[in-house]
Amino acid sequence: MNLCTGVDEIRDALRAARAEGLRIGFVPTMGFLHEGHLSLVDLARERGCGFVVVSIFVNPTQFGPNEDFSRYPRDEARDVALLEARCVDAIFLPGIATVYPEGHATRVRVSGVSAPLEGERRPGHFEGVATVVLKLFNIVQPDLAVFGRKDAQQCAVIDRMVRDLDLPVELAFGETAREHDGLAMSSRNAYLSPEERALAPRFHAALSEGVAAVRRGASTDEAEATMTNALRGLPVEIDYLRLVDPRTFLATESRDCELLAVGAIRVGRTRLIDNLRIVAPSDGATTPAT
Question: Which end of the chain, N or C, is more open, meaning fewer C-beta atoms within 10 Å of its C-beta?
Answer without folding.
Answer: N
